[in-house]
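in:
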């Protein structure tokens, strides 16, 4: 995220996953130069309900849910003017102070879920077509990096009791001829008795 923040000269970078069908946030990771950060993770039910109401009213927010298009990199300015976004209920209630330029790239996810990386800048400088093209070209690499990280985080598959027993023999250095029947080297190819 730090490399992306530097590459795109962003003030704020967020990676988040939501279960939009159930209207719940699943995770969010943020990297920011902005001093003020509002944490909504402990939001009450009314705040959460208001967020999701405004989410579904904002075309810039619900674009991948509404269209199913996760391949295109989008900017808030694709949907509304700068003035419209600054005065929108979503931005006024849940926006980041001083930041109104946003670009999003979407990741494949299960139905009813949305995963996105969002880059934010201050009002003075919108993301360019070059920025959009660079993020589009980086998208497959970002997806691959995410999948690799997820594989590393997952626990290894559970072993059966017999697999555990086999690993114990290997760890102790027990010759295969001393393993219980059915575990040793097949007699014909090895020539052992």
């Amino acid at each position: 995220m730090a490399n992306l923040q530097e590459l795109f000269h962003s003030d704020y970078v967020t990676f988040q996953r939501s279960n939009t069908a159930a209207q719940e946030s699943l995770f969010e990771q943020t990297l920011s130069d902005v001093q003020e950060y509002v944490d909504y993770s402990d939001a009450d039910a009314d705040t959460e309900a208001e967020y999701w109401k405004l989410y579904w009213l904002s075309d810039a927010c619900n674009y991948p849910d509404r269209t199913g298009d996760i391949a295109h990199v989008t900017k808030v300015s694709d949907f509304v003017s700068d003035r419209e976004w600054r005065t929108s209920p979503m931005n006024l209630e849940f926006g980041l102070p001083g930041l109104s330029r946003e670009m999003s790239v979407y990741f494949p996810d299960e139905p009813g879920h949305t995963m996105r990386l969002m880059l934010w800048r201050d009002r003075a400088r919108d993301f360019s077509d070059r920025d959009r093209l660079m993020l589009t070209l980086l998208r497959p690499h970002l997806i691959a990096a995410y999948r690799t990280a997820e594989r590393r985080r997952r626990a290894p598959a559970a072993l059966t009791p017999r697999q555990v027993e086999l690993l114990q023999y290997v760890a102790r250095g027990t010759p295969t001829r001393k393993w219980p029947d059915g575990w040793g080297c097949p007699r014909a190819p090895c020539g052992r008795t």
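note: The radius of gyration is 25 Å.
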